[in-house]
Amino acid sequence: MIYRIRHLTEYEYQSPVSLCYNLAHLQPRNTSYQSCVSSKLHIDPLPSYSRKRKDYFGNNTLHFSIEVPHKKLSIEVISEVRIDEARASPELNLDLGNTCAQALEALSAGQGKNTLAAREFVLDSPMVRTIDELREYAEPSFAPDRPLLSAARELTQRIFTDFTYDPEFTTVATPLSDVLEHRRGVCQDFAHLAIGCLRALGFPARYVSGYLETLPPPGQEKLVGSDASHAWFSVYSPGEGWFEFDPTNNNMPAHQHITTAWGRDYSDVTPLGGIIFDGGKSQPPRVAVDVDRIKER
After folding, report:
1. Are the C-beta atoms of residues 36 and 81 closer than 8 Å to each other?
2. How far apart are CA 18 and CA 71, in angstroms?
3. pTM of the model
4. Rounded to whole angstroms, how far apart are CA atoms 216 and 223?
5. Which ranges of 28-147 does DSSP label H, i.e. alpha helix?
6. How far apart are CA 98 and CA 80, in angstroms?
7. Which residues of 4-16 are buried (b: 16+ CB within 10 A; e: fewer)?
8. Is 163 within 8 Å of 186 (Cβ atoms)?
9. Structural contact between residues 123 and 199, judged by C-beta atoms closer than 8 angstroms
10. What does the pLDDT look like over 237-293, one tens digit per residue?
11. How many angstroms separate the CA atoms of 250 and 156, rounded?
């Protein structure tokens, strides 16, 4: 299956921006079941400097600067991604595998490359600080003799049930403690919440950003630009690998989830960030996303 993803971000400024430096995470990465067939980027005004590279986590990044005065900035990325449906949706028995106690013991004693690399995802990160309240919320699901993946699946379901999706309640800067107290937020918040719960118990967890194919109600056409960026999380089980869960939709990501990047939290994989000089009072960008299936060539 091939998806075409169009991600358009437009800024308008009150007064001309004289100079801006930017970092983008907009090109989907390759994974065990996903390959980026092509990715075309258009920036207006044209950058004075641009450079693609892999970041610390292996994500595709673009650094660019615009060094001419401008009152508008447009960044459009059109990517085609091939998904291996069988590998994206494997048959998993969540009642097998490492128990929570076994996973913690293996994390402590293990010297394998993957386990050593996963340990850094137990540490606090800029937007996810482990607090007692997170551990207390998570503990009922993580009995020592329970399979880790079964416990993570239950945590996913509890967040879906206990929290209300409310795009008006949080911003990028809303503390995780506020999300936990008021039981409201969006996909970014719910991913951070699950990650904080897992780390508070000693399990490695990382933030995954990407896209989710959405389908219109039966008999209705899909609105252009109606899709959005999405976020979920993954947890590491020693000797078994990373496993993804989506608390916003109460499922395990499969072929309808397209991965862009992963890191410790949102701050590592912000779709577009940077610094501008001048421009007047900041204005929120206009973002339009389309995720469409296309025929295999």
Report:
1. yes
2. 9
3. 0.94
4. 8
5. 85-88, 100-109, 113-118, 132-138
6. 36
7. ebbbbbebebeee
8. no
9. yes
10. 999 999 999 999 999 998 889 999 999 999 999 999 999 999 888 788 999 999 999
11. 6
CATH of domain 2-84+270-294: 2.60.40.2250
Q: How far is CA 278 from the centre of its chain?
A: 30
Q: What is the DSSP letter of 80?
A: E
Q: Are 81 and 28 in contact (CB under 8 A)?
A: yes
Q: Write down the domain spans for the chain.
A: 2-84+270-294, 92-253
Q: Which segments within the chain are labelled E, that is strand?
A: 2-24, 34-44, 49-54, 60-66, 70-83, 164-165, 184-185, 205-212, 229-237, 241-245, 257-263, 272-278, 286-294
Q: Token pair of 252, please?
A: 């395990």
| Residue pLDDT, tens place only, 41-64 | 999 999 999 999 999 999 999 999
Q: How far is CA 236 from CA 6, 34, 120, in A?
A: 31, 19, 11
> Who's near 12: CB < 8 A, 6+ residues apart?
71, 72, 283, 286
| 92-253: CATH number | 3.10.620.30
177: enclosing H helix or E strand:
helix 176-182
